Amino acid sequence: MSNSTEITPRGTDILVIGAGLAGLTAAALAVRAGASVRLIAKGWGQQMIAPGWISVADHAGSDVLAAAARIAAEQPDHPYARAGADALPAALDAFCEIAETVGLPYARRTDGRALRLPTALGAIQTPLIAPRGLAQGDLTDIGGPVLLVGFNGWRDFHPDLAAGNLRAQGIDARAVLIDPPEFRDAWDMWPGDFARQMDNASFRQIVAQQVRPHAHGAAKIGFPAVLGLDHPGEALDDLAAALGCPVFEIPALPPSTPGVRLSSRLRTWLLRQRARVQIGHPVVRTRVEGGRCVAVEVEGLGHVTPFYADQFILATGGLYGGGLLTDDTGRVWEPLFGLPLVTPGGEGRTDWYGERLLQTGGHAIHRSGVRVDASLRPVDAADTPVLDNVRAVGHLLAGFNPLTDGCAEGVDLVTAYQAVRAALAVGA
Question: Least buried of 28, 112, 138, 182, by fewest C-beta within 10 Å?
Fold first, then answer.
């Protein structure tokens, strides 16, 4: 008896594998374009630990999109170049429209420059776009002191540390600790626990009462990113009104509340649009016939189920997401399709790493990935597509280092956008 349960191949227009930022965005874009979509993933992606903002060209001095265009022009194997010069602005706009639709508005500066946002350590990061709560913490021309608020006894955010490091960079910052309402011992509280409490108006009122005596003269007030799980906009506005000045969020330790919000809202919206979303069900095998994928096999309760589609988008992540695997012999491989990879040269693992842990430009192994054509189809060494209806996106791609290049989320969005656009153009 077969352990595989067949489903009649009616055909899903697009099947997305992976629920990171690239996969969720691809699914949302495809649904918005009218496609029938199924998303399958073994778990949530990197947005669950990432700050939630969108880095496009973090090292740009001024016009971020112009800097991204230079990257594409100067690095022909970079995902920006592969996706096409016109795709990035459109992809960013489309993502912001989707985020607005699901009730999580993102914001950016109007002059094309990056935001200057504080981290939990008091460093300053420079994404182009961020959720409204984070974006309101932009440290450009703030016009007064910044007050950072932490919860007494909570290990995940230390406002004195952040404020001290900001002062070392010329930012007028001070810190205050308040007692978290209803929690006597907050040491092991998860960010989500605080965020759920911040959805309650009575909890916020007590927080505001404790902060108010310290808020005099502050240009803006920063909290760890726990200002609401289901109602973050209401929490932001409520606290700002109670304290008399703008309020913003600072990323805390994982799990990332902004990432949880985004994943949850996108999943709910996809389901309401009649997309199929299966999280916790790994794809274990693929069926390829005549240079095309016809189905993927998904592990379930005691059996494997095949799912069919016309087009497939592979958004399984890079080395840290499980989209690429390695072993102690120095082998690097893509586990679902066995796609050709670009990897560091040489024998074994000797070329994987530089001499320093914090290597300038990162380590060579992190530039491993799948090389693609302009339609995001995986290609071999001769630039010939190896699968006609499979497109690879996000951190799975070669040509950049998602850890050091300051463009990880930009790559996620632009490749998801271009993959969906190319997939839906087939047969149109």
Answer: 182
Measured from the Cβ of residue 278, the count of other Cβ atoms closer than 10 Å reads 17
Distances (CA, A) of 386 to 189, 307, 396: 48, 21, 16
pLDDT digits (tens, 9 = 90+) for 297-320: 998 777 899 999 999 999 999 998
Beta bridge partners of 397: 370
Dist. CA 16–CA 402, nearest whole Å = 21
C-alpha span between 116 and 71 (Å, rounded): 21
List, in sequence order, every beta strand (DSSP E) within 300-382. 304-314, 325-326, 332-333, 341-342, 369-370
Asked if 295 and 343 count as a contact pair (C-beta separation under 8 A), the reply is no
Sequence-distant (≥ 6) Cβ neighbours of residue 89 within 8 angstroms: 65
**pLDDT tens digits, 18-41:** 999 999 999 999 999 999 999 999
User: What CA–CA distance (Å, rounded) separates 351 from 363?
Assistant: 9
Q: Coil, helix or strand for 327?
A: coil
